[in-house]
Amino acid sequence: MNDTGKDTKQRNREIAHNEGVRQTTGDIRVSVWAIAIAVIVGLAVVGWMWMRK
Question: N or C of the chain: less Cβ packing under 10 Å?
Fold first, then answer.
């Protein structure tokens, strides 16, 4: 394989790695939002039940 092919392969690996990091960051961001919404809904339900007593 010539140097151009090796350079292209290395570049593709770097792009794939960067995309993987970006995907992980996005997944974490979505998870944090989902947990935050679940906590807020849970607190609202507990508050609603507490007020009904």
Answer: C
